Every structure is written in structure tokens, then in C-alpha cells.
Amino acid sequence: MALVGNMIHEAIGGNPSIVNYVMFVSVISMLSLFYLIAATISDGFVIIPILPVVVDGLNTLFFLIGGIALAAYLGVHSCGNIPYVTTNSVTSGSYDDTKRCHEGQAVCAFLWFGFLTYLASLAFSAMEARGGSTSFRGGIRRGGPSMSQV
Q1: What whole-number distance in Å separates Cα of residue 132 and Cα of residue 19?
Q2: At residue 136, does pLDDT exceed 50?
Q3: Rounded CA gap, 139 and 146, in Å?
């Protein structure tokens, strides 16, 4: 979020829409984390059992779209390539285009990392919503008492 905010702050003549979308994704992610952390700590915050799955699914989708779009806008070039840095729509538009290029590439990496973490969170939320537990023990009597409870 701070990297994107810095890209927006240092822009000379506005930003491409992908930079604004990535800022939207980071803000939505932060706001939804307030709910998801509270829902994880206490079941009282879970209003509808499917709501954490929906929130995780939306965050996963937003991060996937942001990662694909930013990677497509950036292309795969070195930030030391001055003709690329000065002509790319994401990296140009700042007094220090090379710094902006490095920030854009770092944001792209964070988007893909966030996608993977939200995908894992989505899997755990889906297991919890369907009534199962997040323990990976199998067995015949899944919902029944274990030996320590008998």
C-alpha cells in the first residue's frame, strides 16, 4: 500500500488506471482484514457462515486481476533500460522513472504474494464454512468424538 501510495504521490501528470486499481485493491484488502481477523478470533463476528469465504474469494480475485494486469502493463524489462522506463505508461510520469519502475515491480511481486496468501485463506475459510475443521486429520468419524473425549 505504501509503495503504491508513493507512486501516486510522486506522479507528475496523473497515473495510469492500473496504479489506481492497485491502490483500490490494497485499501479493500486492509478494510476486509479488519473483519477477517475479528471473525477468526471470535465466531461472534461471523454474521453469516459463508461471509468470510465470500470476502476471501473477492480479495483473491482482486489480487489475481491486479497481478495479471500490472504484470501486463509493466512487461518484463530491466529498470536499467532507459528507453523502456521512459516510454512505459506505468514507469514514466515521475522525476525518477527508475525508482518508479522498481516500485512497480515490487508492487507486482506483492500482489502475487497476496494472491497466494488469500488463496490459502480462502481454502481454510471454505473448510470452516462447510462445517469441517481446519485440522488435516482424516478418519471415518469426522464429526464424532475423539478418543480423548470418551
Answers
A1: 39
A2: no
A3: 10
